[in-house]
Amino acid sequence: xxxxxxxGPMSILGAALVVLLAGCQQCVSADGxxxxxxxxxxxxxxxxxxxxxRPSTSLPEGLPxxxxxxxxxQDYPQGNLKVLLRFSGFPRxxxxxxRAVHIHQYGDLSQxxxxxGGHYNPHGVHHPDHPGDxxxxxxxxxxxxxxxxxxxxxxxxxxxxxxAVVVHEKMDDLGRGGDAGSLLHGNAGRRLGCCxxxxxxxxxxxxxxxxxxxxxxxx
Length: 219
What we know:
Distance between the termini: 54 Å
Shape: globular
Helix content: 10-25%
Radius of gyration: 19 Å
Strand content: 25-35%
Structural class: alpha+beta
């Protein structure tokens, strides 16, 4: 018999998930994706994840050292994946250069960001149609603060949990470069920083989402 420990007041969605989970010990949906992790019940039908960005340990001298957070939020089972990007460490002087951000295949930092593999590409398609191709972001005062929605997911067999987010040296050419590299990675250059995506509590998302929305209202 499956038992669940519930945390705090349950929403209607949370209660429905409890009933669904109680009906089977190992349920699988029609498309082969397993049911949500227990944190979905704990957080009223939503899963959160976080990725703590740090400079690559194989970074050549003279390139920016990037720090920050990538935060994720997705409602179970098929909500749009919402992503907050918060980076610092880019040059404050001169004309800001847009930087590409992508999800990469492996959560392996054994050789800095170089061991994270190529873009996460579960469907075997050309760049920029990979689910974790977030695009280009222009730093302001040495920082990037942005919110995007992604085709990636935190759920099931295609979940990006355990994979890496990489900030690149250059702008992504969005597959328009006319060469093989453009269709693989957008010719975005070396990997400045990276991090591994892991399940988190809502705390970071709630805090930084409020800050982001306040900044939008001021502007």
